[in-house]
Specification:
Layout (H helix, E strand, L loop, with lengths): L2 E5 L2 E3 L5 E8 L8 E6 L5 E7 L5 E3 L7 E6 L4 E6 L8 E7 L2 E2 L2 E2 L2 E2 L1 H4 L4 E2 L3 E5 L2
Parallel strand pairs: 2-14
Antiparallel strand pairs: 1-3, 3-8, 4-5, 4-9, 5-6, 5-12, 7-8, 9-13, 9-14, 10-11
Length: about 130
């Protein structure tokens, strides 16, 4: 059975840091696009960061310079280091892999629809507040 499991979420104050991990079982991250999505309250899912096996990375503008994605294929895990967190980063964060739709990685939208593409974890809550 394929399982992706996120860990590392929690509550922090603005300016704080968290490190999310995504570990897979029954599944290898080798040669797969590794992606973090998030769903803020009342919003749809958005792709926030991705990394390929040749370490090509992508970040949306709102997290550039604050978030860092990395991978450890030997341990079948990838990470999202989140620094200088802001209240607007409050969301459920999902790790995923190979979320291809019509030949391209799904960029976001209705989360229930998006979860039909590729492989997803169950999500971890990140709350940023005073």
């Amino acid at each position: 059975e394929v399982q992706l499991v996120e860990s590392g979420g929690g509550s922090v104050q603005p300016g704080g840091s968290l490190r999310l991990s995504c570990t897979a079982s029954g599944f290898s991250f080798d040669d797969r696009e590794k992606i973090w999505y998030r769903q803020a309250p009342g919003n749809q899912c958005e792709l926030i960061s991705a990394i390929s096996d040749d370490d090509v990375t992508f970040y949306i503008d709102s997290v550039k310079g604050r978030f860092t994605i990395s991978r450890d294929n030997a341990n079948n895990t990838f990470y999202l280091q989140m620094d200088n967190l802001k209240p607007e980063d409050t969301a459920v964060y999902y790790c995923a892999a190979d979320t291809y739709f019509s030949g391209s990685i799904w960029l976001g939208g209705d989360c229930l629809r998006g979860r039909k593409f590729g492989y997803w974890g169950q999500g971890t809550q990140v709350t940023v507040s005073r």
